[in-house]
């Protein structure tokens, strides 16, 4: 029943989904105190732009992002790709393909990351494997998997087995998608500044890049106004991974910050980016080591 409902709602025009999403965003802001506080605090921490303007836009963008998942997961893959009106930077991926190098596409919780991944997968001549973390609402996982793991796309859970799948894909010369701003488990990250505040940052991505010689590209799908679709932006990583965990985490976060600055209201500021994962040392403790 849920699948049928998803497919039915997915047919609504993007403008309608986004309009309903704006209402949903404001409703969540008014009713959920924890969500309200976390979004406001993280956005204020960033120091980006005019806080009040960004806050109002961000509340609306959060709601749009939630309801556009109906289209991302429920429409045929080619219909999802057609929502992208422009793509900037695909030449960087073409250069890596011509050189025979595997690709690591990196997209934070920015814009329509599900649609960005679907669009990119449709342009590649081989499968793309995306790492994901199962949602807290278990009933969402089969819907998410049905929407993501189709055609040229595969998924890998954020577990040891999933990491092995990513490594296998990259060593085969294929591509992966990783969200770099998810808080990793204890021992799988280091504390590194993110908009001026320590955030537990993954070390997996730099390890994969160095172990496979993959080209690392940062990208996202910018949400256009009035349900007009999306603009995918792709840019090469600035700097290099050196093998030093702290330096690599700083390089990773600097690149994520640069991407967010392109569309700051479309970042998922409500995500608990600064949490201390169970078993991880406090940021102060790590600084003393």
Automatic annotation (TrEMBL):
Annotated transmembrane regions: 12-31
Keywords from the UniProt entry: Acyltransferase, Cell inner membrane, Cell membrane, Membrane, Transferase, Transmembrane, Transmembrane helix
Organism domain of life: Bacteria
Pfam families: Lip_A_acyltrans (PF03279)
Cell compartments where the protein resides: Cell inner membrane
Predominant subcellular localization, coarse grouping: membrane
Any GO MF annotation of the entry: acyltransferase activity
Residues spanning the signal sequence: none
Protein name as it appears in the record: Lysophospholipid acyltransferase family protein
Native species: Chitinimonas viridis
